[in-house]
What does this fold into?
Amino acid sequence: MPDRVRRPTAPDGLVVVDKPAGCTSHDVVARMRRLAGTRKVGHAGTLDPMATGVLVLGIGRATRLLTYVVGADKEYVATIRLGASTTTDDAEGELVTSGDASVVTRADIDREVALLTGSILQVPSSVSAIKIDGQRAYARVRAGEDVELAARPVTVSEFAVGDVRSVDAGDRGTPALDVDVRVVCSSGTYVRALARDLGVRLGVGGHLTALRRTRVGGYPLAMARTLDELEAWPQDVPLDVLPLADAARATFPVRELTVAEAAALSFGKRIEAGPPTLSEPIAALSPAGELVALLETSGEQARPVLVFAPA
It folds into this structure.
C-alpha cells in the first residue's frame, strides 16, 4: 500500500542494507527511494536475488561516492555444492552435468582451493551483469544466445574452507558434498564462478547454493539494517543515514583541513599536497568535520576530484 504521508527527504549519506533473498538490488533501491523521500538513490555493487547481505546505498550527494565503494574489496560466506554444475553456476539454474562427489577428499578440496587463491584469471558467469555491446550478459542468455565472456584478472586474497559434509543431491544428480567457504576478493570477482571452477578442477561439477556478503570495503554486516527495520522508521522523521564524512572515513584516507584550505577547495582550487598516503583519493574534512572534497596528489599540490562543500 502507498504511504499515506510522504516521508521527509533523507540527508545526504549512505545506508548499509542487509539485503534479503528473493529480491534484486534494483528492488532494494526502489524501496529506498520511497523510504528516503528522494529518487536520488544508487547502490554500490549488485547482489543476485539469491544472495543476501551487505548492499551499500547512497542517497543524494553520497551517490557520488559509490564509484569508489564499488571498487572496494568484498567478503562473503558461501556454500558450494560439489557434484553438479548448473546453467547459472548457482542453485537457480538447470542441471547441466553431475559427478560422484563422494570420491572427493578434504585434501583434494584444499589443494584446488589453494590454486584458486591469489591473483587469478576468472571467466565470469554467463548470467552476470557484465555488458556485451550495451546489453547485460544475463539478458542475452535469457534471450537464448550463447554467451562467452573473456577471462579477467581478479584477486582472491582469502578462500578458506570450513565445514565439508555429504548431502543428498536429489534431482541434482549423484552423491554431493556441501562445502562452506569464506572468500575475500577484489571487486569484479564472482563467487559462483569460483564454485563452478572448483567443481571443474575436481571433475565432479560445482555450483553455489548459498551466498551472503558480509563486508564491502569499510562497511561490515554489523553496520547493516534490514528492510523491515528501515520500514519501521517513523513516517514524519527523515531516515537516519551514515553522514558523508563518516562514510568517507570508512573508505578513504583522511586529511584534516585548515579553514583556508577548506574554503579554497570549496571553490575547486588546489591546495598544498599533504603527507603521502597508501592510497588515493583522500577525504578532505573541514575543521567542523564535514566532507569538503576528495583529493588526488599532483606534484606538490592536491587537486579536488570531487567537491562536496557548496561554494
